[in-house]
Amino acid sequence: MFDLTGKVAIVTGCNTGLGQGMALALANAGADIVGVNRSNPAETADLVQKTGRKFHNVNADMSKMDSVDRILKEAITAFGKVDILVNNAGIIRRNDALDFTEQDWDEVMNLNIKALFFMSQGFAKHIIAQGTSGNIINIASMLSYQGGIRVPSYTASKSAVMGITKSLANEWAKHGINVNAIAPGYMATNNTEALRADENRSEEILGRIPAARWGTPKDMAGPIVFLASEASRYVHGYTIAVDGGWLAR
Ligand code: NAP
User: Fold this and answer.
1) Which sequence ranges are marked TM in the entry (predicted)?
2) Which pLDDT score, from 0 to 100, does residue 65 have?
3) Where along the chain do its domains lie?
4) C-alpha distances in angstroms, 156 versus 13, 27, 96, 117?
5) I need a surface site. Which of 121, 127, 165, 237 has the fewest CB within 10 A?
6) Model's pTM, two decimal places?
7) What is the reported pLDDT for 66?
8) Cβ atoms of residues 22 and 14 within 8 Å
9) Residue with the nearest Cα to atom 12 of ligand 1?
């Protein structure tokens, strides 16, 4: 049920961090990978190819609307079809709400929610045209559930990710498309570098995680394969927290 042999998975932002971990997990389960990156994903390409699967990179800035069509066309030219979409690319901007700029609002919202929606729309059109089933997995956050501090546009965007996951599941389940999300807890990647560098915040965060450690890209492997595979065929519109127990506190 967890076998992805013969499937094609698009993973946005997979040159590093959680995207790299998920691309590798999907390849280990048998999928060929289409990476979508603005930075060179050489390390990910190498790791995926070592599993025996293929890796095709599309160089694109996901915050630009014209990327969507090109990404899907390139994926289909490379592998003939698409089956799985992981909307992972995301950014964060930190500042007091009183000083927060329009640019920090727009850049985060454009990538984290607008691009995620239109990428999903383009993907769903292809799945329906192919007449196959498909799986969309959106990457949410603890700030899909909680308010956070000094990250207003990130909280707004990730709360919206959880909402749109339910909304798209409602419309597309009838087309055989499962739309779900993963909400990572506090994971050791570039995204949390500033937090981990702040001794007080880092200690506060770690003290609240029942698993008593930061998460890693490997912790995403099981949940991403589950949501990309037959094993989750009747799971629609749900967000799975992969958080070391953070939300249970
Ligand atoms: P990361 O290491 O900063 O990775 C983010 C990825 O998105 C990178 O590959 C980055 O590419 C890519 N990206 C950023 N802007 C892009 C753009 N305009 N076009 C294409 N790609 C772009 O952070 P991460 O922690 O792995 O984050 C992955 C996802 O998990 C994000 O959606 C993040 O919000 C979410 N998340 C992370 C945590 C955590 O604790 N780390 C917790 C909850 C949710 P570059 O390397 O070129 O910047």
Assistant:
1) none
2) 86
3) 8-241
4) 20, 32, 14, 14
5) 121
6) 0.98
7) 86
8) yes
9) 13
pLDDT digits (tens, 9 = 90+) for 53-96: 999 999 999 999 889 999 999 999 999 999 999 999 999 999 99
Question: The tokens of 179 are what?
Answer: 């739309």
The answer to whether the Cα torsion of 225, 215, 123, 39 is positive or negative is negative
Contact yes or no for 87/162 (Cβ under 8 A): no
Dihedral pair phi/psi, residue 148, rounded to 5°: 70, 175
> Which residues fall within 8 angstroms of residue 97, CB to CB, at 6 or more apart?
150, 152
Between CA 216 and CA 109 the distance in angstroms is 25
Q: How far apart are CA 27 and CA 79, in angstroms?
A: 14
Residue in 12, 16, 158, 219 to alter for ligand 1 test, most ligand atoms within 8 A of Cβ: 16
User: Is the distance from CB of 201 to CB of 186 less than 8 angstroms?
Assistant: no
CA distance 137 to 126: 16
**Which helix (H) or strand (E) is 154 found in, with range?**
helix 152-172
Would you say the CB of residue 106 lies under 6 angstroms from ligand 1? no
**Nearest CA, atom 43, ligand 1:** 141
- Kindly give the distance from the C-alpha atom of residue 13 to the centroid of ligand 1, in angstroms, as a whole number: 6
Residue 223 and residue 21: Cα distance in Å, rounded? 11
Distances (CA, A) of 18 to 14, 66, 77, 213: 7, 25, 26, 16
Q: Which positions of the chain have pLDDT values less than 50?
A: none
